[in-house]
């Protein structure tokens, strides 16, 4: 069965610090993987996606993610966090439908 | 390209009433998916429509229904509203079916409060 696990419910980082959000997936075939971000009161915005090829993918707003098949992971990273990055982040895997993780809430301290 | 514009954005309904939400997909997209988001349950898949046919359905009671029109616009209906139906209802649009490597693009959602 397909599933996505985001182990961290909430993360707090200082502005300017680096960020890594964890995502583990379960999927039998080559996965299609996504990261979305949701600001308060808004819908989900696509940050980046992995379909195949280079395992390090670049997204919008300075985010990147690395696909590691051996670890079934697709962690999201950003080298320097801005206060505007405070939001909820969702990892998703696409099989016959989309499966979303429960999300990680990011707080940024000035 | 223009995004997904869900209507209405906010609405308040009374228990027992019904509600209809609308979602026009991005131009050229033929698939529309619906999700319910609540603080306790997170994002839950309701159903997906592609070319006017329901392709996939989540684990929701029959009070939740949807349809898709020939212009790909989709509507979602909830009948006999319960307090627990209070949620953010998100619509997502994609060119092809919402799996198989197709990317889905979300609208801003419709906030439903049932009192």
Describe this structure in words.
The complex is a heterodimer of chains A (110) and B (115). The mean pLDDT of chain A is 94. By secondary structure, chain A is mostly beta strands. In chain A, the strands form three sheets. In chain A, strands 2, 5, 6, 10, 11 and 12 form a six-stranded mixed sheet that branches. Chain A has strands at residues 3-5, 10-14, 19-21, 24-26, 32-38, 44-50, 56-58, 64-68, 73-78, 87-94, 98-100, 104-109. In chain A, 0% of the residues lie in helices and 54% in strands. Chain B has strands at residues 10-13, 19-23, 31-38, 42-50, 53-57, 64-68, 74-78, 87-94, 105-106, 110-114. In chain B, the strands form two sheets. In chain B, strands 1, 3, 4, 5, 8, 9 and 10 form a seven-stranded mixed sheet that branches. In chain B, strands 2-7-6 form a three-stranded antiparallel sheet, with no helix packed on it. In chain B, strand 3 and strand 4 form a beta hairpin. The N and C termini of chain B lie far apart (37 Å). The mean pLDDT of chain B is 93. The A-B interface holds A 32, 34, 36, 41-46, 49, 51, 90, 94-98, 100, 102-103 and B 4, 6, 33, 42-43, 45, 48, 56, 90, 92, 98-109, 111.
- First-to-last CA distance of chain B: 37 Å
Distance between the terminal alpha carbons of chain A, to the nearest Å? 41 Å
Helix content range of the residues of chain B, please?
A: under 10%
| Low-confidence segments of chain B | none
Secondary structure class of chain A reads mainly beta
**What is the tally of helical segments of chain B?**
0
Largest sheet of chain B: 7 strands, mixed
What is the number of beta strands of chain B? 10
User: How helix-rich are the residues of chain A, as a percent range?
Assistant: under 10%
The pLDDT mean of chain B sits at: 93
Q: Largest sheet of chain A at a glance? A: 6 strands, mixed
* Radius of gyration of chain A over all CA atoms, rounded: 13 Å
Structural class determined from secondary elements of chain B: mainly beta
What's the Cα radius of gyration of chain B? Answer: 13 Å
Uncertain regions spanning at least 5 consecutive residues of chain A: none
């Amino acid at each position: 069965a397909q599933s996505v696990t985001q182990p961290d419910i909430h993360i707090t980082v200082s502005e300017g610090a680096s960020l890594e959000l964890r995502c583990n997936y379960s999927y039998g075939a080559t996965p299609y993987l996504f990261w979305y971000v949701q600001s308060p009161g808004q819908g989900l915005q696509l940050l980046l996606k992995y379909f195949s090829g280079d395992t390090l993918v670049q997204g919008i707003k300075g985010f990147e993610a690395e696909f590691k098949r051996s670890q079934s992971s697709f962690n999201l990273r950003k080298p320097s966090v801005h206060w505007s990055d405070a939001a909820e982040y969702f990892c998703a895997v696409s099989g016959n439908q989309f499966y979303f993780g429960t999300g990680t809430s990011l707080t940024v301290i000035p | 390209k223009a995004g997904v514009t869900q209507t209405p954005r906010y609405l308040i309904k009374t228990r027992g009433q019904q509600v209809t939400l609308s979602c026009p997909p991005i131009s050229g997209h033929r698939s529309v998916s619906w999700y319910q988001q609540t603080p306790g349950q997170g994002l839950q898949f309701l159903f997906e429509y592609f070319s006017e046919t329901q392709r996939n359905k989540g684990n929701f009671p029959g009070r939740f229904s949807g349809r898709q029109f020939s212009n790909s616009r989709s509507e979602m209906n909830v009948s006999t509203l319960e307090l627990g139906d209070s949620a953010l209802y998100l619509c997502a649009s994609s060119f092809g079916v919402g799996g198989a490597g197709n990317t889905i693009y979300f609208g801003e959602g419709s906030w439903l409060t049932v009192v």
